[in-house]
């Protein structure tokens, strides 16, 4: 796929449309903003995806820890640290995403690959759009989120890898405004997080909710919790050792040093290079980029959206 390939504007002119950056546009679909590149594939996921009861769906807003969780889920479910898959394969290739790969490449048909005992599939589609589909089977959902300011700063850096960024930059000021207004791919961020979180509170056996910061703080604890949720707990004498090994093999230091993840080549599954998914993986890096007034602006929305609804997170 060519980097940020041009898509035809959506034929239905009644659909709400907003500029993202440069000549990239977002379209409103069922209350969320979808990038034109993934609008049709997102609709096809809703129409045609049939989750199997054994599927594990990794859901996330972009830049909140998707790549990390892909590595962790693969390792927990397939115990891949024992067979080196992560050394030679980018996590996004080991675990395909529904709207950015599978349904994009299959022209909208359910690719229905079943060569694995457990299919792990990624998605950025908001629960408001994909919830009914995911509830049509007993599949499990793992959701990861991240501090809003670090998420935004990570996205802003990521987009700088796009060639057209340099021709027509996406300023940090514009990015902050768009983040606060919810007009970013798969946004609003706050609605995305709250909907999956609410489901995890209602049905903790169906939806597992974890934050990037919790993973950083105590990876072993979260991996143990995740393995229990997935029905594949670590048992026996070496349990703690195996958990430790997984946390280490999926940590930023280890993963970002594999040749495949350092590569500036563009993978088949995404229009930006392999290495664009690994920057520094830190908590609190927004402090190095956001001005105090930007932090204030985002924190005000965080209080209004998260804190007011009982989720004291993100500040
Ligand atoms: P995606 O949603 O487009 O797949 P995602 O993986 O969620 O992106 O986000 C990438 C971020 O996760 C980057 O954060 P940064 O820009 O703040 O550095 C990336 O560095 C970070 N990341 C990737 N792998 C790991 C990891 N193993 N541990 C911690 N952070 C990681």
From TrEMBL:
Domain of life: Eukaryota
Keywords in alphabetical order: Transferase
Record domain Sulfotransferase: where: 53-309
EC number of the protein: 2.8.2.-
Gene Ontology MF terms in the entry: sulfotransferase activity
Protein family according to the UniProt entry: Belongs to the sulfotransferase 1 family.
Record-given protein name: Sulfotransferase
